[in-house]
Design goal:
This protein is mostly beta strands and about 270 residues long. The N and C termini lie far apart (about 125 Å).
Length: about 270
């Protein structure tokens, strides 16, 4: 009899634990699990440290921010990148301060999408994503030569839970430096030697090596009377100057004369 009582007690306990019922015989349906609040603060790390951004024709560079969420957090997570108020000025005073930068962003290795920094409030809103142990936010930056004036720039990544409570915050740094100016911002030197050969020297835009190796255009240039440049205006040129002209009497052999688009110089 003792064995039967024990068996009955165990069977009853299993029935109650495995098939909860309510009056009327209908099985109870569990409600969806609510989001769980964080038990601590998350950590935010910019992999590789501050992102070095060349300002010129080098192309885009990418930084990744890795976010470790507090233990036990569930539900949606949002993030936004807050940029400081600009302290620099661009050559065109009416141009938005962050306009020289073309950024794109991605969440958890997904598709990149345009995320301009000069939106209202100078902030980028990332789409919400479900909480996980680790989240990643990628920021790809392509900057033109005007962005060099931005220098050392530090933004703040702020992460919030579904209720809007801040669960993590950390710096995201960018280091803008001069790169190779775009070709239309550089100047070109044309030079004629005594033999009448015309050479072209493209500019690099770099102070330590201002010119690329020369390229031969053609011969017979010791009999010309005039030559006019047609390049776009150089940023170093004075306002309104787009080219320079020099002339020589037919058959003259006066050494080498050079011409910069936007400014003029001569050497013999």
């Amino acid at each position: 009899m003792t064995g039967k009582r024990v068996t009955l007690a165990i069977a009853t306990a299993l029935a109650i634990g495995s098939a909860p019922v309510v009056l009327g015989g209908t099985a109870a349906v569990a409600a969806p699990a609510p989001a769980v609040a964080a038990t601590g603060t998350g950590t935010i790390v910019q992999e590789g440290g501050p992102l070095a951004v060349p300002s010129g024709e080098e192309g885009a560079v990418t930084t990744r921010i890795r976010v470790t969420l507090p233990a036990g957090l569930t539900g949606p997570v949002k993030a936004r990148l807050l940029f400081p108020q600009p302290t620099w000025e661009l050559p065109d005073v009416d141009t938005p301060a962050y306009e020289p930068v073309t950024p794109t962003c991605a969440v958890n290795g997904g598709t990149f999408w345009p995320c301009p920094w000069d939106s209202p409030g100078n902030e980028v809103m990332f789409p919400a994503t479900e909480a996980a142990t680790t989240l990643t936010y990628d920021i790809r930056v392509d900057a033109d030569s005007r962005a060099a004036v931005m220098g050392n720039l530090t933004a703040t990544l702020e992460v919030t839970d579904g209720a809007g409570a801040v669960i993590g915050s950390g710096p995201v740094a960018f280091r803008f430096a001069k790169g190779t100016p775009e070709d239309y911002r550089r100047t070109t030197v044309l030079a004629r030697d005594k033999a009448g050969v015309l050479w072209q020297h493209e500019s690099t835009g770099l102070p330590d090596k201002p010119l690329k190796a020369r390229q031969r255009i053609g011969g017979g240039w010791n009999t010309y009377t005039a030559s006019t440049g047609a390049a776009r205006t150089s940023r170093r040129a004075s306002a309104g100057a787009t080219s320079a002209t020099w002339s020589s009497a037919p058959g003259s052999s006066s050494g080498v004369r050079s011409c910069w688009s936007g400014t003029t110089s001569a050497s013999t």
